[in-house]
Structure formats: structure tokens, C-alpha cells
């Protein structure tokens, strides 16, 4: 019955849109889920069986299933198959009908688009509560609010009408200079202040890159496992997301990956999110030459480079780039506070004019008095002091977490091991492939702690298990108090 | 030679992507322009000749040309044909090659995508300087900065850590309540505070609607002539823009328009931008029933409803909506100041959860202390006072402009006439169809004044000529001083 529905949907789609077969099957499967013909939690037939039932090649079926998995409609469970994700909402069939596609007017109000449904139900950042160990969250309680308020006051007093208007020059000039000076010295980025575009943060930086450098349907390589926010930005801008596995040296494209040539390559080379892998120097050169061969742009997200605790300092990938194909981005949300909504994007010189124009027209940037306050905050050394204090405080938390986890580590290659603790505000506790890390994270959540299963960040791969553990949010006392709870939960694994 | 190039491009496109013919021709023509095979300013053969040369139906050719005109690649000049827009940049052929589409790696760095090129070169808001009479700009020099600074200070002092974080509830609750109260009373919008989503302004509101309610390639009806910012938001979100003519009673879809059923309908009913037409009540009911028949959503942009000078007060289209298909949006940039980057979107109840979730994940909203200051600014009546003062001041400017234009008005249906002066910060001086309004605007610009030719806002239609004249930006003395210069320039038309 399901295959009949799929075949008739594919037939309908094929007759009107001339979509490739795997895309027709993707649409038909998605429709089956939204209409409730494939219910939440239901098991999908194997790709082999589906291919036979539908008279399609197995490659076609696998391609459709992979895309649905990447977008979160389907989930794979090791050894038991592929299932419809529990959070795929069922849509009222009457309202889900998209009459306009067929030109047949109807009275039923339509609802979310397919894109809208994916954007509002998959890779959502709010699925878990913020508690001790939630990754990706900094502790902004130490931010010098009084000083910040004084600076803002000063710049509001100095404000002239232009500062209240939109800004079309890529941001407040002294702020762009301050960012350029910082990046040149601390991140070995090669740049003039003119190449800096002040954005509202990494989401806006990513969308600007995706829109200006790629067309709808173009392929973007995304690290697997990946940062959800980036996946979402690429979904929103209509790119085809091709996951490329990450190993201990960073992104590692195979010949099969190279057969899906990218228009964009998104990487977090100095501290891969979430595994924490640092991209090795040979791998960096290799990536740049792969990008060159494909004529692709590289998007370097240096989201937490401010916090490095051990190992040699790592300079940016951009600093190695000899032919201007790396776009570098960072944010102030981790050193100042998230709600400030200020980040930056560094673009190669030939792109500057187009990026500034489109940024102005699409985003109408503003908040100039706040940009002025931030420029002075950096110039007067307050940013460096805040960073120094934060680095010290996070360093202590990190140390406490490492101490707490020591008893669970096993020296073998199979046992629990830590990766990515050299930098940033989280580390990754790798677990044996047989462990159900999602269930473990849930047991830990029952004790009032939030860690994220590494498998939740995986797009296509099934081999990674672990816990992504943040030490940025909770104060040292909480880490010391809760660390043993965490490690006891992990130790309990061995007994079961 | 051109037709050979077009045919070979179409052949290539047809073989790989299964695009419809008019889309293949669209792509081939665009490529010809970017590669310089069709130079800037060059005249295109007539659609009849092109159809014959390429062996295509004339409808196919017309569809491709219309799309390129809407996107700004082509411009039509009355009586002389269709030309390549002067600002279409030529792209280095080597770098424009998109090797990844064909899977053939190359060393040439790629450049902007087709989407990026369109977004950074068409409908750009910065093409003209801001001077007296520039439309779309308010005078924020009168904004009570000291009071605003005091309120911000107060809320920064009261700030608790959550206020520094991102916000996932659609905005600061007291601000959402204040907006809801204002809209209920002054705009007859039917809503609870829960339906209000605080955005960074109309661009973000439009993109959120386009992404959540429409899929790539879906049709959006846009008023012709149109607000550039909306066109850009829809281009950026991959919608097919279908222009629908506006008459004195607002948007006026024909049977031909209904044959292009929309997923979204974007309107500015209380003061059409830029003609200033007020949508009549029968037309409002008609539009809602058309939307119902197509299962479409209506996006109501009420961008300057705060300033109404004459005629009966007009309530929102949303207020007439009985089945929850209108999304209503407004902005604080015209009453406070543009750089504040705060606006609002009111969504029907069934959409609230999905919109808030996606808004959080895609945009990571922040700036809570500023939202708190704004909430108090409204609650304490400062917003109303600022509005009252501004209304008085703009009213005087409007009066001075109307006085200055009086001598050029002709009583006949063909002579210069004013439309849209009842509301907002601009009016439209309609001119006979034979006038070259772009040339007139350029002559006026040489005298240090900026007005925009009405034809520049037209998407597909060729019958509108006029000047869009703003009275929001320049002080009364400037309007009085420059008004006669403006009217002299218009009067000089009759002599030539």
C-alpha cells in the first residue's frame, strides 16, 4: 500500500516537474510521512526491499533515504534499521494538499511549506535544557556589565544622526579596524580592515556566503558530525548538504566525496564542532588544494579560537590560503554575550564590494552606537582582559571536568577517551561504537545535567558514539559537584 | 552567433537538469550577458525574432524575457525595445565557468553565484544619494535621544544574565504586549501578544514568511510597481516573482494572473509602495477571497501606517481576515530610527510555534535590554508623543511640498497629478506616459535633489511614469527652498 502511494506520488511529480528519480522518491516519502501514511517511529523497509517494490535502482533509494536522514526525517538505529523520526509532525491531509501546484483552487488553508516544516522541526537548538555541561554555551555572568554600560552611554552621548541610520560600509570603521588588528595578530589572518564585514553573527555570515557564492541546489560539503546551526543555514539557503566524515585530523574527503564536487566547503578547522579534532597542517594544505581543484569556496568558522588551553597555537586556515578562496568568520557571542548579536566575516578582496552591497540590501545593518562601544572596548584592551579572565576561569573548569572524567578513561583504542579538550568550551568523550549514547545522555539528563550524544550531530555516519560535554556554562563549583555524577553514569555502562 | 550560443547553452542545460524550456532560455541569456556575449546596453532582438531564430514558441521567449526583466537584467524602453541593463557586470568567462556542475575540476577560482550576482547588482537601495526628497527615509534627528539613553541605561542596570542571552520566546514579553495593544487599538489587528514575533525589521519578517510558508520556486504575487526590499527578500528566498498590477484601488489581479496561482501574496494595502494607492474595501474582500481560492498566504506590510494625514482612517487587512491567512508586519525604523533594527510580525495562531522555533534557530534573536527599553518607551506613552510630534512635523513638510507642486498639476486625466499623499512619508507625482521619468529624475539630481522615477519600481509594466517624492527626510525649510526647484524641473517638461 505504501509503495502504491509512493509510485503514484512519483508519477505525479515526474509528470509536472521533471525531477530526477531520487528526488521524486524523496518528495514522495516526505509526503507519506507528513500525511501520516508513514507514522512517527515506524520502521522503513530496507533499501533493497524498497528498490524491488518500486522498480528502482538501489542507488536511487539510498540517495533519497540519505537526504531524508540528513534533514532529520529519518533516523537510523544500529542493527535495527531506519525509522521515521519521532518529531516529524503529521499534517492534516486536506490542508497539506498544495492545490496551487496543480492550479486547482480549494478552500482549505495551506500550512507550512516543506522547507518551513524542515526548518522548524529538524536540528532545533532548543530541544534540551541549559544545565551544567550543556555544550555551546558560554558563561556571560562574568561579563563586565558596568563598564559596558558606561561605554555604551558614552557613545550614545556622542551619537550623531548617521549613527542612527543603517550602515552600508560593512560596519563601523573603527570596529572593523579593531577586528582586523586582532585577527592579524592572534589568528594569522591576512587582511585589511576593508575586508571585514560586521554581521549579526555566524548565522548571518553563513547565509550571506551561501546566497552570494552558491545557487539553490548547489552542493556544500559539511563536516560529519556537524554544527547544527550551519546545517540549518544551508538548508535555509537551499543547498544540497553533502556530509564528509571527520577523523582525528579533521575533514577527510574520499574519492566518493570528490564525485560530489562542492561549491562550498564548510569547516571548523581549529576545533572541529563537536569532535574537537584539530585539522593537521598536511590536511589543511590538502583541503585548500581540493577546494582549488573543484573551484570551491572554503568557509572557515573559527567559533571558539579565543580559548586555547594546551598544545601549540594554531593559526587560521585563511592564513595558508594563497589564492583567496577562504572566507573566515568569528563571533563576539562567546567572549562578550550572545545577545549582543555581533560577529564578523572576512571576505577575499575581489568579493568585498558585492558582499557589502548585498549585505546592505538584504540585512540593512544597524546598531552603530553599540558597534562604536565595542570598538572602544577592544581598542582600550578591555576585550583582552575579559578574554584573559575568561580563559583562566574556563581553564579551571576544564581541569575539573578532566579530573572527574579520569576514572572512566580506558587506555585501549576501544575504551572511553577524550578528544578536543585543547581548545574551546567543550570536549568530547568518545565511547565504544556499541554504546547507545542517546540513551546514556537521557539517563544523565534525569540527574539534572545536559550532555549531548555525539550521534545526534552525525548526518550520515553511524560509527560515532560519545558525549559532547560543555564546561563553559556552569561555574567551577557545579563542575566539581556534578562531574562525579557524570562519570558515575558513564562507569555504569560497563556494568550493563 | 548569439542564437548559436543560446542553443548550445540550452542544449547543455536541457541534457543535465531537465529544466523547462523557458528556464533553459533564461539561463542561456543570463550566461550570454555575464560572459559579455550580450553587452551592457545592447538591444535584444524582438521576442518574435528570437522565437523564430531559436525555433521556440513566442510564449517561451516572452516568459524568459519577463523573468530577466523582473530580476533587473533587462530593461525595456518605450518604443525602442528591450536592452541589457547597464549595471549587469561582465564576468571573466574563465572564472564564471561552473566546473562543479559538470564534475570537471579546474584551477580557475569561481566567483559569485547567479543568485549572488542578482542579489548584489539589482534593486540596490544605495544607487542614489540621500538628499532632500529621497523617499523611504524618515527624519530621526528629532528622536528623543537623551530619554532613550536614560531608558537604555535603566534597563542595562536591571539586566539579569538571561537578558544577555538569545531569546526563544519571540521577543521580550512586555514588548510583545505593548505592540499587541498598539496594533489592536490603532490598526484593528485581531491578536494576542503571543502572536507577535519581534524581528530585526521587515526584511527579516519577509524572509521568515517566505522560508516557512513557501518552497523554492513557488510563486509570490508582488504588487507592480513594488517595494525593492520585498523583491530582494523574495529573490533571496528563491521564489518566482509574479508581478500583479496596482491601480488606484490597490492590487488588481486579472484572469491571467490567476492562471499563475500564488503561494504568497505580498501587499502594502494601507499605502501602496510607491504609488500610494489605498486598497479599497471591496478590493480587500476580493483579495482575501482570491487568497482563499488559491490556498495562499497574504503578507501585509503596514510600513508607514503611523502617519495618516487626511481621509478616513484605514484599518488593517488583517482585521478583515476571517480564516487566519494574513501575516501582518510593521517596523519601528520610521518612528524611532532605522538602526534600532526592531520590527514585528504577527502570525496566525496555528503558525506561532513553528515560527518561533524557526526564528530562534535561524536568527538567534537577541538585544533584550534594548527590547526592554522600547517596551517601557511605548508603555509610558513616549512612543505616542514621539509619533504625535513627528506627525505634526511631517504634516507641515507634506503641506509645503503639496503647495510647491500645485503649479504643475493639470486637471485633465493626462496631466501631472498627485497620488498617495494621504499617508506616509512620500507621495507620487504621476506624469503622462510619454515622459521619460528617469531622465527627469536625473536632471533633478543635478540640482542636488533626489526623487525616484516611478518607472524604476515597475517590474513588468511599462505604462507608469512619475516621480516618487519623499518629504520625511528634509526639514521644512529645505522643502520650502527646494520645492520650487522641483516644480520648475517638472514644468520644464511642457516646454520640451
TrEMBL record, chains A, B:
- Show the Pfam families listed in the entry: Aminotran_1_2 (PF00155), GntR (PF00392)
In the record, what terms sit under GO molecular function? DNA binding; DNA-binding transcription factor activity; pyridoxal phosphate binding; transaminase activity
Q: Does the keyword Thylakoid belong to this entry?
A: no
**Gene3D superfamilies from the entry?**
Type I PLP-dependent aspartate aminotransferase-like (Major domain), Winged helix-like DNA-binding domain superfamily/Winged helix DNA-binding domain
Cited SMART domains:
HTH_GNTR (SM00345)
Locate the HTH gntR-type domain: which residues?
A: 19-87
The alphabetical list of record keywords is:
Aminotransferase, DNA-binding, Pyridoxal phosphate, Transcription, Transcription regulation, Transferase
PANTHER family with a match to the protein in the record: HTH-TYPE TRANSCRIPTIONAL REGULATORY PROTEIN GABR
Q: What family does the Swiss-Prot or TrEMBL record give for this protein? A: In the C-terminal section; belongs to the class-I pyridoxal-phosphate-dependent aminotransferase family.
Q: What name does this protein carry?
A: PLP-dependent aminotransferase family protein
Amino acid at each position: 500500500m505504501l509503495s502504491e502511494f509512493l509510485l503514484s506520488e512519483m508519477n505525479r511529480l515526474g509528470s509536472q516537474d521533471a525531477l530526477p528519480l531520487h528526488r521524486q522518491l524523496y518528495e514522495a516519502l516526505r509526503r507519506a510521512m507528513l500525511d501520516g501514511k508513514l507514522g512517527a517511529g515506524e520502521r522503513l523497509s530496507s533499501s533493497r526491499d524498497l528498490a524491488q517494490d518500486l522498480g528502482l535502482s538501489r542507488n536511487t533509494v539510498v540517495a533519497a533515504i540519505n537526504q531524508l536522514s540528513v534533514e532529520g526525517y529519518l533516523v537510523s538505529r544500529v542493527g535495527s534499521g531506519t525509522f521515521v523520526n519521532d518529531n516529524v509532525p503529521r499534517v492534516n491531509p486536506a490542508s497539506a494538499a498544495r492545490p496551487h501546484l496543480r492550479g486547482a483552487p480549494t478552500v482549505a488553508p495551506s500550512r507550512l511549506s516543506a522547507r518551513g516544516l524542515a526548518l522548524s522541526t529538524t536540528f532545533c537548538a532548543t530541544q534540551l535544557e541549559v544545565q551544567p555541561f550543556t555544550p555551546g554555551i558560554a558563561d556571560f555572568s562574568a561579563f563586565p556589565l558596568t563598564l559596558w554600560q558606561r561605554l555604551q552611554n558614552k557613545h550614545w552621548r556622542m551619537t550623531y544622526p548617521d549613527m542612527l541610520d543603517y550602515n552600508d560600509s560593512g560596519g563601523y570603521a573603527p570596529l572593523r579596524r579593531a577586528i582586523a588588528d586582532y585577527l592579524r595578530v592572534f589568528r594569522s589572518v591576512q587582511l585589511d580592515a576593508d575586508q571585514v564585514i560586521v554581521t549579526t553573527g555566524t548565522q548571518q555570515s553563513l547565509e550571506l556566503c551561501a546566497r552570494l557564492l552558491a545557487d539553490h541546489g548547489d552542493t556544500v560539503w559539511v563536516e560529519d558530525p556537524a554544527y547544527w546551526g550551519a546545517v540549518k543555514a544551508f538548508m535555509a539557503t537551499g543547498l544540497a548538504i553533502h556530509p564528509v566524515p571527520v577523523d582525528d585530523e579533521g575533514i577527510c574527503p574520499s574519492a566518493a566525496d570528490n564525485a560530489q564536487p562542492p561549491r562550498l566547503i564548510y569547516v571548523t578547522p581549529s576545533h572541529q564542532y563537536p569532535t574537537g579534532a584539530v585539522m593537521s597542517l598536511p590536511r589543511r594544505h590538502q583541503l585548500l588544494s581540493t577546494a582549488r581543484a573543484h573551484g570551491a569556496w572554503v568557509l572557515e568558522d573559527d567559533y571558539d579560537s579565543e580559548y586555547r588551553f594546551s598544545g601549540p597555537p594554531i593559526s587560521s586556515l585563511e592564513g595558508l590560503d594563497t589564492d583567496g578562496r577562504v572566507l573566515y568568520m568569528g563571533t563576539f557571542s562567546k567572549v562578550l554575550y550572545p545577545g549582543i548579536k555581533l560577529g564578523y566575516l572576512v571576505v577575499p578582496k575581489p568579493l568585498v564590494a558585492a558582499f557589502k552591497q548585498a549585505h546592505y540590501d538584504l540585512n540593512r545593518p544597524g546598531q552603530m552606537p553599540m558597534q562604536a562601544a565595542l570598538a572602544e572596548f577592544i581598542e582600550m584592551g578591555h576585550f583582552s582582559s575579559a578574554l584573559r579572565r575568561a580563559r583562566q576561569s574556563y581553564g579551571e573548569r576544564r581541569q575539573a571536568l578532566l579530573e572527574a572524567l579520569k576514572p572512566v578513561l580506558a587506555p585501549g583504542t576501544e575504551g572511553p577517551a577524550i578528544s578536543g579538550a585543547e581548545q574551546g568550551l567543550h570536549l568530547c568523550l568518545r565511547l565504544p561504537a556499541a554504546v547507545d549514547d542517546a540513551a546514556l545522555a537521557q539517563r544523565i539528563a534525569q540527574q539534572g545535567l545536559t550532555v549531548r550524544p555525539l550521534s545526534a550531530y552525525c548526518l550520515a555516519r553511524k560509527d560515532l558514539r560519545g558525549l559532547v560535554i560543555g564546561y563553559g556554562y556552569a561555574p567551577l563549583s557545579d563542575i566539581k559537584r556534578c562531574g562525579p555524577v557524570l562519570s558515575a553514569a558513564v562507569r555504569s555502562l560497563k556494568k550493563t
